Amino acid sequence: MLTLLRNFRTSFIFFLLGIGCLLAFNLSTPNIAANGTLQEPFAFIPLAWLFLAVSAVIFAFKMVQTVLIVKRQHLDC
Predict the structure, then answer these.
(1) Which among 16, 17, 21, 74 could disulfide-bond with 48, CB atoms 3.0 to 4.6 Å apart, if both were Cys?
(2) Quick one: which H or E segment has residue 21?
(3) CA–CA distance, 77 with 56 (Å, rounded to integer)
């Protein structure tokens, strides 16, 4: 089980960063400037999507790599 967690820790870290960005955006309070424009940290939204996409790509790559290793070990027996 620990080996499995070690294989996917990079993906998990990027997933947590993406969730953290979404939480930061939702917990921030919007401000209205003196000239009437709305000021919100909109940069957290694309950052969250980027981190979640990177997490999904790394997870898929590591999953395929793990399946191939398990198949190779099974065939060697």
Answers:
(1) 21
(2) helix 9-27
(3) 32
Phi, psi torsion values for 67, nearest 5 degrees: -65, -40
The closest of 23, 18, 20, 14 to 60, measured between CA atoms, is 14
- Classify each residue of 40-77 as buried b or exposed e, where b means 16 or more C-beta atoms within 10 Å of its C-beta: eeeebeebbeebbebbeebbeebeeeeeeeeeeeeeee
Cβ-contact 22, 52 below 8 angstroms: no
Token readout for 16 is 């947590």
pLDDT at res. 2: 63
At position 26, the amino acid (one-letter code) is N
pTM above 0.85, yes or no: no
Q: Is the pLDDT of residue 77 over 80?
A: no
